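Most newcomers find our protein records easier to grasp once they have seen one. Read left to right, the backbone structure tokens trace the chain's path through space. Nothing more is needed to start thinking about how sequence determines fold. An example says more than a description, so a record of this kind follows:
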Amino acid sequence: MTGASTTASTSLESQQTTSDVALRPTNVRYGVLGLLCGLSMITYIDRVCFASAASGITRDFGLSGQEQLKWAYTAFAIAYGLFELPAGWLGDRLGPRSTLLRIVIWWSLFTAATGLVGLKFGSLTLGGLTTLIVIRFLFGAGEAGAYPNITRAIHNWFPMKNWETAQGYIWMSGRIAGGVTPLVWAILVSGTTFSTPLLNWRGAFLFFCGLGLVWCVVFAWWFRDQPANHPAVNAAERELIGSTWTPHSHSNIPVKAMLKNRSLWALCLMYSLINYGWFFNVSYFPSYLKDRFQLSEGDLLGAVYAGAPLWVGAIGCISGGIIISFIAERIGDRRRARQIVGCTAMLVCALSWWSVYQAKSIHQFCISISLAALCVDLTLGAAWATCQDLGRQHAAVTGALMNTVGTVGSSLAAWLTGEIVQRYVKQAAASGTEALTAAEKYTASMAGYQAVFFTYASVYVIAALCWCFINASKPLEPEQAAPQVGGH
């Protein structure tokens, strides 16, 4: 009897253990998040490497200064904005898997093409500055839609309460990768006091193209559009996620609902304003830092400082959601918590850019510009989570609209920064009878950048006001809300 009883007890315990395991959610969603974070990292590496290559491109193309690359920066930003909505619509219609594969393959190929422009084969030259501008436009068209479709994937794979945190990890990963890119560039391309260069700037673009293509292979093999289609997801994880989304082959963009939603337009305006000031970090900043503080090629401290706004900003990406959740628990209102963090962060950002305007040393300068970037990134998770709240099953399109309007700020900054600096140099040249000396040109260009920094400080005050009008509790239209299972 004792043996039979023991056997029965063991069998019962085994069944209970098996039942407990079956009830415990699998963690496939975290693998999805890891893949998406990897994509975010590659996205920023491929953006920032162009800014790191600016001095080499300027030299090899025979340009007088990096401000002559303003249309290359602007072309990327314009294309990025123009193709956001179509790429977001494809994600909502077909699902993020096929859409992201198209996006990453396209931009990886044009990353490689960037390194080939101007290459000489005997008497043949593969284009010049105009060709480079066209390539950067096509690169921007490729990258468009990456973050809206990442948002679509998060919407499908994570419960609503985790949206801001997941978005924080996505943006943190991108910022960290962008922040270390100048350091990686110094080791790979410029060389340091401890190492010799491994690649020239052209080879580096080919290398970064390869990273994107490798990611595509892994993503295509493992990712699925929704948890129900992934063989490793159990019923408990599907229930935890609670996703009811399926691709819509005839999904339409809710244009009228978007046009009528004041919160969405306040969100879009705010995003455009923060992009206007932030774009400096991934465009003119590395070369500006080297010129202003007379840094040598391969200066490791300079490389660390060049990436500081991004890797310091990464702290804001992940801590923003935590801070908002903390405040929301205290006041019982997540919308108000987002507004409090958004308004406060934007005002501190404006003060930081004002201190950038006043900074005298490289240490003061980098602390101020990094604090400004930190404040911007504190609000990123809230901004993209608000897109999900407002758009629901149209989350990718809503995110794409915000990013499209946001690139207006990036485009304006890319062009206007170079234009203002060039005008200051031209005015200095016009005031004298002889050509400018190197010292005179340096003084004029630095004065131009100071004027630019003042415009950055100004726009963040307006961005703070925008947060007062963003109400995430009102989706685009009642019929745009996620469908209720079992409803009529």
In short: The radius of gyration is 25 Å. The first strand starts at residue 120 and ends at 121. Confidence is low (pLDDT under 50) at residues 12-20, 479-488. The CA atoms of residues 275 and 410 lie 5 Å apart.
